[in-house]
Input
Amino acid sequence: MLAMDLSFGRFQLAVTHGSTAWFREGEREHGHSVELVPALESLLQDAGMAWDDLELLALVVGPGSFTGLRIAAATMAGLNTRLRLPVLPLSSLAVTARQSGLEEILVCEDARAGECYVGRYRRGKAVEEDHCMPWHRLLERTPECFASRTQPPVDMSGWERVPLPQGRGQAMLEVVSDRLAEISDWTSLGIYPQPRYLQASQAERHAIQ
Output
C-alpha cells in the first residue's frame, strides 16, 4: 500500500509491504510540485517495490490546504490512470487525532479567513464529524484539551493543546487500518480521489459577494 498526506505543511508518505513500513517526509513546506513524484519513486525503491506491486492507495483528502489537497488528488489520479487501484480516502483530522495517542480528542486546525476545521474522534471513530466553523464560535465552548498540527491564530486561554508524540506517517497507517476494518470489500472503492475542502475557496467567496 502507498499512503499520501499533503494536507498541511510538508508532505508525508508511507509504503507498506507485509508488516514492514517505510516513510518519507518532504524537505520543504511548499515543495510539493517539485519533490513529490521523485520522493514517491525513491520510497518505493527503498522498499524494493515497483509501482505494479501496489494493491491499494490511501490519500488524506482533507480538510487542509487547498493547494496541498489539489496537488495530492491530481498526483494520485495521474498515477492511478494506469494503476487502476482502489483509493481509500482519509481525514486529516482523524490522522491528527491518532497522533495524539488519546482515546478521545477534539482536533482543530486553522482554516484561515477567521475559520477553523474541527472534528472529534473517539477510538478512531468520528463522534463530531469534520466541519468548518468560525474560531469565535469554537471559543464559545467550554475549554478543553485539543490537538492541532498548526498553531491556532487566536488566544485559546483555558484550552490545553496536547502534544503529538506519534509520527504522522505511522498514524496515517493506523487510520488506514481503522478504515479497512469498516469496509467489507475495499476493492469496490473509487480510483479517483476527490479533495474534501469543507470551506469555500477565495474565488467562491468573491462570487458569492
Q: What stands out?
A: The two ends are 44 Å apart (CA to CA).
